[in-house]
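Please study the protein below:
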Amino acid sequence: MKPSLLILAAGMGSRYGGLKQMDAFGPSGETIIDYSIYDAVRCGFEKVVFVIRKDIEEDFKEVFLNKYEGKIDVDYCIQSLDMIPSSFELPESRKKPWGTAHAVLVAKEKIDTPFAVINGDDFYGGEAFQLIHDYLAKMDASSLESCIIGYKLKNTLSENGHVSRGVCQTDSDSCLVQINERTKIERNDAGIFYEENEKAFPLKEETIVSMNLMGFSPAVFSHMESMFTDFLKENIHTEKKEFFLPLVLDSLINVKNEKVSVINTDAKWFGVTYQADKSSTVENINKLVKSGVYPSNLWENLRTVS
């Protein structure tokens, strides 16, 4: 069974100011998600599942579903706040989504093969998709083994403001030891720094970070369900607490004693954290088109699913 691709596309992007997952960036109106799916198809992924919100369902179907017909099998699921175990009652004050790990968990019924997870508003590059596909293709679907693609920090920054990144610590076997979410990472004349408690701390250019391109077996869903129940027991009334994917990785390492492989890439990430990022992202994509990495119309000649 070939790997599946799970795209987290429910986020509104408050700093960006709109539904950036549906915005056009390519010369023929392609979205960033289009490039991710195109790369995934070329690498051998056979199914893509989207996680979206109910209020964008009709727009999503109009924009995305028709264009992928005949290229890859497509499905989707809705993430909502009330998707919690029946033993809990949703607090009226809860407005914030439950987090990236919850988004993955709601896709449980849609995925039965090893799968990669990506953000809908990030451009990861074909090399990264090939690396994770090849890893997942060899994965035991019954194991709790997992992986992440590790980017060099210098290749993941925005020119228009600070970013948050999962800073990875690895052992001599390139396995994840720890992942720490560092917020307000930004480059200045003195180097790259992150801010914590109103103090600035340096980070090296070559620091390996996670961009939420991760790979799991379907066996992880049961573990995530148990984790989410424990998370709610402790945090259901803490309005801003979220169930993040790095928490799952940490649990796999320290509770289940599982291996989380870090697969490093020199690929350059780009995305649209801010509205001002759009022009540089469009420019970067046009450069890739001109150099022959992508055709000027992604879907014109690509047919893979009968």
Notes: The chain has seven helices and 13 strands. Residues 12-18 have pLDDT under 50 and may be disordered. Residues 4-290 form a domain with the Spore Coat Polysaccharide Biosynthesis Protein SpsA; Chain A fold (CATH 3.90.550.10). The helical segments are 32-43, 57-68, 100-105, 126-137, 220-235, 245-254, 277-290.
